[in-house]
Amino acid sequence: MQGRSEGQVVNAETRASVQTIARLIATDRRPAVLANEKGEILIANAPAQRLDLDRAALTEKLDWRMLCKSALRAGSVSVSLPLDGGATEGEVVYLPLGSGAGFLLRLAETDQEATWLRNRSRAATLMRVAHDLRTPIQSLLAAADGLLDSGAASAEDRETARKQLHNAASLTLDHINNVLAVIRGEQSVAGMRPDEDFNVTEELRTLIAMIGPIARARDVELRLRLDPIEDVWAHGPVRFVRALFQNMIDNAAKYGGHDVEICLSARPLAATGEGRDQIAFSLVVSDTGGGLPPEQKTRLLESTGKGETSPTGREGARRASAGLNVLGHALRQLGGTIEVLDRYEEEEDRSPERKVIGTTLRATFTLDAPETREGAADAALTPPVADSRLDGITVLVVEDSPASRDWLRQMLGSAGATVRAAGNGIEGLALLERPDLHSEIDVILTDMTLPYMNGVEFATRVRHTGPAGAAPGWKGPIVGLTAHVGDEIRRACQKAGIARVLEKPIRPVALRKALLEVLGRDDATSSADAPAAAHGEQKSAAGDPLKTAVVTELIAQFGLEGAKSFMRRAHGEAESVLSRLRADGVGPDTARLLHAATGASGLTGLKAVETSLRAMEHDVAEGRTDLSEAMKNLQTSLTQTRQAIDQLEN
């Protein structure tokens, strides 16, 4: 065995630790090296030297930094090292070295040991993926039951049920693909995928939408609180965040009684040393299921190796524990902690016989702050609009599409409005329950097709005042947005207290004018009806792939770069639909995807793309499955439109 510096100097503080580790490595018959995060070798034994396990081998054959980051969070991580003649299994173990960190790579000594390690890791991965598959399948079944039972329901109810069914089916297929990839050996047994930037808030919303049908079937009320109420982005292993969120919420929805409250909070942390800024997250799930039995608490805490538990007043209702190991694994990978706390009927009661009425799970973990996100217009740089100003007006926007929600926020904000945004009805209700926001909001703008509860149900619950003022009881005007305006929908909206229903896609100036009118503002009679005169709008030339009127208005509102940003996002959505059609053909979700892309294209002035998409919508509605000619036309439109967007100038 020999030690190597490769630029790394072992100081006195770590020398004793390194010497102890060196003696252990020297007697290990397996190839073993101790290195730092940069891949610089501190110690390598003889078997490792025979395999040329130097810095180049670590950094070129492995994603060494990512492995170290994962080992630092979880303590250890499996690894498959490509070598001549195949791959060798092993693991990377984090070892604290005084004020520094070391990472021990140990490889299997024999083919039999390598096979055992590979199969053990693959079996563990399959167990976790297969367990997580249960929730979307159950959601799929619950959504299907809801759709079958909605024969006498309104069109909006049926559309909501169909949307939930499609979402559950899509998530189920994703999980099945993961299982098949593991079985075929196409997915690394270590489950290593690069960390990425992702919207943590939107991940939580998506999981609540998936679990929503299960909760409804069990008559469970889900409540969501966000702190802050704005979307929070982070950089990290999104798969483990999803697994943690899914198992905490799923367990409460299935076994936690009739009321489940979910609270996600995020706080920025200053960077230490040369690292990134970080964000501390806390997910708290509180239920009324009668308390978690002591043996389940023990199992959960043992599965994480962290956390603490409060004394149990009495054993509560017995609950399934199939997801506890998966939850613990996800939390270990995130380097987080969990608390399991009993909820009591009388919180002030400290007697041994006090009644346990539920459980609170509090998981905490830290992720890096994201890279600077591109593609969204900067609200601070968006030029203000002159027509139909919304100064002094606070709007609550309830919209489940992140792109549409961002567009509405920017568009209304550029007209002077203060915008509070929610991704679904339960989030919107939670905002209205806050006394400061309840009195601040002047008008609600809601999509009518929402997950968990549709727009009509949301509006009905907004108007309702429950016991002790528990529900909002809000009295202001509500405006609905929908792509399916008909007499049935209008009657349902009127009954729910919705002042006006607007059809998608809608021009910004028309939307602002409608909001002013329902608020009874005099300036609703501004020049909003004539945006062409205000902005120098011109008619589109024949053959122009862009709709000049819409593009001119976008540029006037958001500036050139902001307008291009929204147009490129709509263009990308259409490209995504085309790619999916080429790969999978026409499927049960094709019509919805085409409809969404068509709306986004119309909203942002992509005339040629919108025309091609509408033609494809018609073909699908007519039952045609051969869309080769239509896809060719769409590709031509996309190419022409991309060039036109790039050539736009002030």
Automatic annotation (TrEMBL):
Keywords: Kinase, Phosphoprotein, Transferase. It comes from Celeribacter indicus. It holds the Pfam family Response_reg. It comes from the Bacteria. It catalyses: ATP + protein L-histidine = ADP + protein N-phospho-L-histidine. Residues 287-318 are annotated as: Disordered. The lineage of its organism: Bacteria, Pseudomonadati, Pseudomonadota, Alphaproteobacteria, Rhodobacterales. One of its GO terms (molecular function) is ATP binding. The keyword Kinase applies. One of its GO terms (cellular component) is plasma membrane. This is histidine kinase. Residues 394-519 form the Response regulatory domain. Gene3D superfamilies: 1.10.287.130, 3.40.50.2300, Histidine kinase-like ATPase, C-terminal domain. Residues 128-369 form the Histidine kinase domain. Its EC number is 2.7.13.3. The modification 4-aspartylphosphate is found at residue 447. It is an enzyme of class 2 (transferase). InterPro entries: CheY-like_superfamily (IPR011006), HATPase_C_sf (IPR036890), HATPase_dom (IPR003594), His_kinase_dom (IPR005467), HisK_dim/P_dom (IPR003661), HisK_dim/P_sf (IPR036097), HPT_dom_sf (IPR036641), Sig_transdc_resp-reg_receiver (IPR001789).
